[in-house]
Amino acid sequence: MAAVLDQGVKNFTDILTNPNSPSKLSYLLYPGLLITILILPAYRFVLKDYHVFLALGPGGTPKTFPGYLRVSYLRLFTISDPFRPPSLAETVFPTNGYLRQLPQRSGPRPTVAGIAPHRQLDQKCTAELHHVLRDGLHKLAAAFPSLIRKGSSCFEKQGLALFLSACTQSAPPNDAAHPGFSHLNPTCQDTGEICHLHAMDSSMHLTLHPLDISIVLSAGWGERHPLAGKYVHGKELLPSGFVMVYAPRQESQVETVMEIVKAGAWWVGGVDLAKANGLGGDQ
């Protein structure tokens, strides 16, 4: 068998290197063979990569081949290290974050893939635990009806998301509801989206203060989105503080995730939900 393969390789090499080969048919096939050799591996890679894109489930990008090509183009602009927090720029105010510390997440980080969608591939929670997490978001919105509203994610055009209410977004800087804040930090076309939950993997995306991102990363609870803070053709695709928070694996971890959500509300809207009684929370 090895001898047959070796002879086949030799014959093929002769065709490529000797245009005067007596086999005119072989000579005529030369361009087609060359194109096949060059294109077939690329075709197989694209086909496999396209199916990986489809397997990530619904997201902000249409599940079509043009959608895949768009995401593939955006790979050229991704950040080099999703586990390195953004720098604390001089324009960031306040300079302190919301979180003081988080319990360390045990075990290795989950495998994460994609850009749009950007999803957690393993270490997913159970359907029951997903319901607990989703219920926690509903309860948070119900506890602060004049501060938070529910809707579909502006980033992904689907999925449960929490937003600042209209009255919170229009509040003037440095008023009683936002002490010490010089401005709000709007997200996704100024909608004030605080977070959104992914039904497929129970992970979340939300926007945080740079120092809070550092705490989330160091505690093993998340990573930055590949396009966080990146500009393409003069347009910022996502806020620099846009992060994924991993799915909780047990019910006690839901509390940790919800604390990170509160940090998102604080950064996006200047509202400390832990101290919000009398500022929109139910009495």
From TrEMBL:
<feature type="domain" description="Luciferase">
    <location>
        <begin position="192"/>
        <end position="263"/>
    </location>
</feature>
<dbReference type="InterPro" id="IPR048273">
    <property type="entry name" value="Luciferase"/>
</dbReference>
<dbReference type="Pfam" id="PF17648">
    <property type="entry name" value="Luciferase"/>
</dbReference>
<keyword id="KW-0812">Transmembrane</keyword>
<dbReference type="InterPro" id="IPR040841">
    <property type="entry name" value="Luciferase_dom"/>
</dbReference>
<keyword id="KW-0472">Membrane</keyword>
<feature type="transmembrane region" description="Helical">
    <location>
        <begin position="27"/>
        <end position="46"/>
    </location>
</feature>
<keyword id="KW-1133">Transmembrane helix</keyword>
<protein>
    <recommendedName>
        <fullName>Luciferase domain-containing protein</fullName>
    </recommendedName>
</protein>
